[in-house]
Known about the structure:
- The chain is of the alpha+beta class.
- The chain is built from 17 helices and eleven strands.
- Strands 1-2-6-3-5-4 form a six-stranded mixed beta sheet, sandwiched between helices. A five-stranded mixed beta sheet has the order 7-11-8-10-9, with helices on both faces.
- Helix 10 (269-276) runs antiparallel to helix 11 (308-324).
Amino acid sequence: MKVVQNHTTLENGIEVVTDSARNFQSVAVSVSFRIGSVHEPDEKSGISHLLEHLVFRGSENRTGEEIQAAFSEFGGYLNAETDEDSTNFVARILKDDLNESLRIIADMVINPRLLDEDIRLEKQIIEQENCRGCYNCTMRDAFYAQAFPNQSIRNPVIGYEDTVEALTQEDLREYHRLAYVGKNLTVAVSGDVDHETVTTAVKAAFRDIPEGQAAGYPQFSYTPGELLLGSSSDRSTIRIGFPLTEFSTRQARAAVLYYDILGGHGQSKLMYELREKRGLVYGVWADEYNCAGQNILFFEVSGEAKHMSEISDVMIQTMIDTAHNLQERDLELAKKRAHSGFMMSLDDVFERCKGLRADIADRGCIYDWQKRYDEYQSMTLEEVGKAGEAILELEPTIIGSGSMRNMPKFDEIRAKLKGKDVAAAKQKQGLFGLLN
Length: 436
């Protein structure tokens, strides 16, 4: 399938990228600033997220109600999200409403009014949004705090209650002045559109945005860490994260296929060994997450606390066996899942926009869709197996949650991932102790 994507950099630094999806009735727009929580000083943690909220309160030319009413009249959708490394304003509208949608979003992000009363209200709303240490956020924050100690990547996107409360109108105006600039901005459009027409519309809508300076990704230093979050729950969890940042592009592609075979779906090897064969878990989670240039491969298992040593051992042995004894059928099915994923993504204009903006953030250019597809489909059994072996040689960060008494020792998990015989080592240590 031919995918037509184009990229133009405007004089004020804006990256305009389009993905022509012929015969689609809707158009997806992503106005994405490459700025997020990793760019914030600790004392202003949460400012990117608060600013994103405030943009919807209105501009110097439109009230918040008028902005929402315009998209209601389009029959369209407008929303936003802040991540660690980006702030994204997204819309889905019909093609005929594209130009006006771009003008409205441009006005919102260039001219937010940032009134004190709006700031007070949005702080109150964010207080309600704050999950206050839910399981997923706790595990996320614990992992990054151990893997990247004293670095901004460890801070939650939403910030902390005291840092958000302390933010002032002056703080927000200055942050907006530095962050919402052309050199931080990607405008991605996917749908039945013409690139030159879109470029002209973006140039007109965003003509008043200052060029500014590109933020870029901060430099981070990974340190393998570990933390046990003790509780009295009868259930426990182990999350293991491996840093893939130093992997080459092709090695990273092979690693994706390895984790897909291992734990990326309902028929994965970990699901079979832990759930279907032994009934030890309900589910297994595996995912690759790229945050501000730091690529982490996660595996997570949860089960009854009393079974965690067995669950851990089965997980580790399955990881090792998959790397060393990969079968052609395993790879064939993984490639079919990759093929389906690529094809299905073409049906979703939002996903296509997301891919465009990720390419610009990570590479500074569009990565050819067909080339990416071919890279996965051309992977050999040897490459995927070696990627698995390379992952097991990495020093992971390990986060445990649950009963401390039943949790396997983290140093033993590390040793077993390397294929070391922990039982033999214990026996030798015990004998040595007796002789002395």
